[in-house]
Every structure is written in structure tokens, then in C-alpha cells.
Amino acid sequence: MTQLHLWANRKGGVGKTTLGVNVAAQTNRSILGIPGTPAARLDRSPAVLVASIDKQHSVGFWVRQIEGRGAETPFDYAAIDDAGQLPALRTFGHDHAFIDSAGNLEEPLLHAALEECDDVLIPMDCTALSIEPTIDTVEIVKAAGKPFVIILNNWTPGDPSEARYFADFARGQGWPLCPAMVRHYKLHARGALEGVTVLDYKENRIARNAAADITNLCQSLGYGKAI
Fold first, then answer.
1. Membrane-spanning regions, if any (predicted)?
2. What SS3 class is residue 16?
């Protein structure tokens, strides 16, 4: 049975799309145990699907950028414009399907996805302005009765006190907190424009650190196997 995960937060720019695409790519590679291209899997299509309910369909732009440089996208992609399409995400034989959403908590399609999903992944970047939107998001998710986890994102490398502050805040709210936290790297921010995922990062210290954060996040969430 496909596990359906919804990325959500009222605040824009917290990493819903960036984390969603990279977690999907890494999870697909982890499950397949190979660098991760659809052509390399002989028994079925990729093990992971990314679906977008964001009207801007930012994931679709990212996929087009990947294809534009002649590469294969390491997950399947679907643009969802109608709530009736959501149940079908479980029927394609993927291990995981990740739903990327916009920040509007009043959007009917978001509420339909919240009703359909198994759990909710709530990125929270390490800035003061992310606190209230995250509180609002958690309240919506709690009202729906869905399990969720807070993922701290974009903390400054070399400043662990920043991550500790927001981790303590999340724990103080009684929120479940993912033990793996993702640092701010330009590699992640440039991924959509350059048409690359974490699987394509070059071999250097910064790239290894950036990729390790995504790998650790996937393992902490229980997606796939360790590489």
C-alpha cells in the first residue's frame, strides 16, 4: 500500500517543495539501492511519486528543468487539480507518494489532501517569522486528526545554537520533532533552477554535507534503507 505524505506549512519559503523533491529523489534511490533513474528499474516504475496540489505547480517546473538538461527525473510526477484525483495516488504501485502544497490553509484542495494523507510533514525554517504560520498549520493538522512531524530546515551551518533554539521551541509546544535537521545550503536553493536534485550534487565537502542532511532526514523518517 502506498504511503501518502503531505508537505504543509502556511508560510512560503520554508522548504516544502525543495525538501519534497530531494526527499523523494533520495527515498527512491534508497529503495532501489541504485543511483536512481526510472530506466534502471526493470520490474516497475520509480518507487516514489511526487504530486503537486499547488496551483503554481513548482514541482512541475523543477521536473521540466531536469528534463531540459537531458536527465531523467528520479521519481514520478503528477499535477493534481481536483480532489477526486487524490485517491488514485495510491493505485500506481509506488511505495511513497509525497504531496507538495501551497501555503493557503483555506484551500479546499489542501483540506482534501489532508483528509486523504497518512501523515503530514511540516517544515519550519529557523526564523522568527516561521513561528506563527507553523502554529496555525499544526492546529489545522491536529483538527484533522493526522499524525505529523516538524522538520527544522535552513539553520545556519556552524551555528548549532540556532537549531537548538527552534528545536527547544518545538518541543516546548509538545510537537513531535524529527531528529534530523537540514542546514541552509545554496545547493538546495539552486536545485530547481539548475534542474538537479540531491542525487546530482558534485563531490566536494559542502555537497557531501548538504546531501548527508537529506539522507539523514530520509532515514529518520523511515523512508527506504540506509545507503
1. none
2. helix
